[in-house]
Each structure stands twice: as C-alpha cells, then as structure tokens.
Amino acid sequence: FKNPESTEPQADVFNYDVRFPLWSDGTLKARHMYLPAGAVLETDDEGNFFWPDGACFAKTFRTTAPPSGRSHDRIETRVLYKSKGAWLYGAYVWNEAGTDAELSGVADRTLNLTLPGVESRYVVPGRMACLQCHAGNEDRVLGVTSWQLTKSTTEHLLAQGHLEAAALPLPSQFITAGDV
User: Fold this and answer.
1) Distance (Å, rounded) from C-alpha 122 to C-alpha 25?
2) What pTM was estimated for this model as a whole?
3) CB environment 123-150: b (16+ within 10 A), e (fewer)
4) How confident is the model over 118-154, as pLDDT tens digits?
5) Using CA atoms, how far apart are residues 18 and 44, in angstroms rounded to an integer?
6) Distance between CA atoms of 56 and 32, rounded to whole angstroms?
C-alpha cells in the first residue's frame, strides 16, 4: 500500500480478481499482485503460471462494516512472496485504528470481533497453516491460474507485457458468456 492507512496499492501493484472466489466466512477480499519489471509469465498445459522471483501476492480480508471498537474494516492481509525459488508466507493482523498491521506468528491467532448484531471468532492462519494449503504445490499460487483470473485481469497482464496470449491455455468449460 502507499501507506499503512491507505487501501490504495503502490503504482506497480495492481488489483486482480478471480472468477470463482472461495467463501471466507462472509468476509470481502481485496487481491493485489506485484510482478517484477520485465517478467513474462509462462503456463503449463493446465493453465498454472510459473512465477519469477520477486512475485508478490497480497489478499486483504475485510468486513462489511467496521467491528465495534475499530475505525476500519480490515482484519488481516495475507502475503505470498517468492524469493530464491521459494515462497514465503505470512499473515498480518490490522490494529484497531487501521494504522498498521503486525505479522502473525507461526500458530493460528483468534480474534474476537463484534460485527453489527453478531459476535464472531475470526481465525488468522499462522505460517504453519499457510503451509497446509500452499506447500507441495510446486510453483503454483492457489487461485491464480489462467482459467481462474477474470478477463480484465488477464487483459491487464497482457497490456503490461507480463503475459503473451499464446501462454493462455483456457479449457472451453471455463469460458463463460461474460468472458467471450
């Protein structure tokens, strides 16, 4: 982000969307991606991308309204960063003022949130929980495949030179009327 209190990304970071988002206990998600300058993505036959070192993904989970005692709606931001051929994982928990986020530890962290009319226990995954889903997926970033990205995200990657149209295997069963 341009600064911790802003939800606006840095100039070289862009929002991206997926076609089939996972349910996350009713939270809203803002997804951001950074690719190093000059990086051109390749895909395998199933539409999985091969990510360069320096690639970074952030997903910020928000509520529909600020929980009691908070001046903002952000709960956590999960980050994936590729360095030296390996993915680093972390979740950052936003403070009550929304001015900074603190790296969560190795273990899960439970937050007690009061949303309008609802008491909620929200679990922020620790780094060990990140590994349960993300480890062993070779170079894949879950949810970020050629068939999962929206048309606007794919067009942005093409326009920025990060993707070549020939690298987009898109099985016909994933093409929807809005994408044609």
Assistant:
1) 9
2) 0.84
3) ebbbbebbeeeeeeeeebbebbbbbbbe
4) 788 888 888 777 767 666 666 678 778 888 888 889 8
5) 19
6) 8
